[in-house]
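New to this. Please check this record:
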Amino acid sequence: MTHPEFTSQRVGVERQRELAAKGALMERCFTTPYTGKVSWDVWVDNIRAVGPEHSVLSSDLGQPFNPPVEDGLALMADRLLAEGFTEDDVRLMAVRNSRWLTGAGDRA
């Protein structure tokens, strides 16, 4: 599910958990909290509540007024680490779950 925290859909955390229990991954986009569409606290709390194993990170960057993609991914990883997620959590969300979605790796 893409952008569960995005302004136009705001999927509640309980619904996210229900979908995750059925095998869905939640695409957590950097630009959603970075641009203020949702607070960082809500974004981080939702990842914690649903679990890194059910989240995949993406930047949603590429606009000239936002940071470059490679900077945004690093900023997102730094933010998650500062919020207490482990390097393994971040790697799971940024790499392993992304690879699984493309068919290039095993799921968490």
The CA atoms of residues 31 and 66 lie 8 Å apart.
